[in-house]
Design brief:
The chain is of the alpha/beta class. The protein has 6 helices and 7 strands.
Amino acid sequence: MYNQVYSIGLCNMMIGKSTMKGMIGVKICILSGTPKSKGLSHSVIKGAKQGVVEAGGQVAEVRLCDTEIERCKVCGNGWGACVTGECEYGDDGFNEIKERVKDSDAIIIATPVYWGETSEALKSFLDRLRRYDYHHKEVLVGKQVLLIAVAGGSGNGILTCLEQMERFCRHANAYIFDYIGVNRWNNDYKKQAVKEASFALASGRKNGDTVKY
Ligand SMILES: Cc1cc2nc3c(=O)[nH]c(=O)nc-3n(C[C@H](O)[C@H](O)[C@H](O)COP(=O)(O)O)c2cc1C
């Protein structure tokens, strides 16, 4: 069952409850890069969950900072899993989370901005997922991905962080649903945007659809 509280290895999964109308049962996995259980990133992720649940979807949060996922070992001549198709270190939690992402209909990637990039824990997972899926093309291919960068300091680095995640999505053959940058002085209305984007995503809207205007 997707819609229940459980944990994968060392990774905490936090699941919302599907309650309202929409595309019942759409499964959305939030890949979270924040190490904190309170704070700006957390509040933004809370808004994303609310949007999914209000649309009738199911939501699972994977907190990468709570896992022990190692960095890519850059096997072989550098191509490693991209050629062999298997990550030989996958039992550190990578395989289980990869399966969770594969089992999802759409993905939300939400990270604090650290030095203009994603958090290191999220980056380690995305690096390995990109290599795995380069070979298999089964985890993210054709899926909608909502990208959220939370720059809670100077506010600098949102664009580079979003660009880093965009490049990952393009290599993984995913569709970018939207890009949202949040900072300290816009988080009131950006959190609303996150919630509404998550609602739209869980309602089945896709990159390329035209919304009436
Ligand atoms: C190592 C490190 C680097 C950071 N780099 C940036 C940065 O480039 N730009 C920025 O606006 N904030 C930066 N911050 C602040 C984080 O973005 C901020 O903590 C984040 O928005 C999440 O807020 P939260 O920690 O309350 O969830 C950095 C924080 C840390 C710990």
